[in-house]
Amino acid sequence: MPTFQNTTASSIIFLLTGVPGLEAFHTWISIPFCFLYATALSGNSLILFVIITQPSLHEPMYYFLSMLSTTDLGLSISTLATMLGIFWFNAREISFNACLSQMFFIKLFTVMESSVLLAMAYDRYVAISNPLRYATILTDSRIAQIGVTIVIRGTVMLTPMVALLKRLTFCSSRVLHHSYCFHPDVMKLSCTDTRINNAVGLTAMISTVGVDSVLILLSYILIIRTVLSIASPEERKKAFSTCISHIGAVAIFYIPLISLSFVHRFGKRAPPYVHTMIANTYLLIPPVMNPIIYSVKTKQIRKAVIKVFQSKEI
């Protein structure tokens, strides 16, 4: 295994890892991943297209959905090249600066997705608790401000975390254990004290994804309290039904994230390929499933998609 001493970060070429122990099957393993990428890219592009082209979807809920599809596209594109490059061509090398860039965008789109899910939770809360003022509270300009704030928040919180990696020197193996650049993975290869990096990284994730998850939970407690105060069972059912798609999106984002954390912490005896496969799929589950959930569970999206396909047939 190649090693080097006191190497400056800017001169490093890292080696990414496919699926340990299953290198002979990388071509076959690439098939389901190709299918997942194709589904994620086409599904989210279709959602964006129908929201942009259909005037009936020019409403706050669908503007936030378009933001979610944009972050899912970004998340998919961030890992596509390195992952399929490894499976198809055994292209494992990645420069330090390219690694930092990929790491930044993966983290940025992950934090942005969490922020968008929080904004969507707020949207559902306003729609259910104060429907008469819904249009005046969530105006187009306010939604645009929320979108810009989401991007700025992620950039400001994550830039120090990634930039601090440039101060490290590396004197151990240059082999990373994922098919993409993962922040803890890079730090493990350093022979420099990484306590500052760990603290900044942990602070960034707690103050973004951690805070968002708590606020989403709080918003649903308030939503449930509001819905239970509605006298009509039919109205209660209708109010809850508007949240089903969002609850599904929250679940498929946070459950894989939590599962990956548990596997890294408590699954040390599991074969290496288990860690790698979970790490590879956890970033693809939300981009693949979100368009499916919203197409199946949201009648307006489903009708708009059908209308688009019918217009292409004419």
UniProtKB/TrEMBL annotation:
Residues 43-294 form the G-protein coupled receptors family 1 profile domain. InterPro entries: GPCR_Rhodpsn (IPR000276), GPCR_Rhodpsn_7TM (IPR017452), Olfact_rcpt (IPR000725), OR51/52/56-like (IPR050402). Pfam families: 7tm_4. GO terms for cellular component: membrane; plasma membrane. GO terms for molecular function: G protein-coupled receptor activity; olfactory receptor activity. It is found in: Cell membrane; Membrane. GO terms for biological process: cellular response to lipid; G protein-coupled receptor signaling pathway; sensory perception of smell. It is a multi-pass membrane protein. Belongs to the G-protein coupled receptor 1 family. This is Olfactory receptor. It comes from Mus musculus.
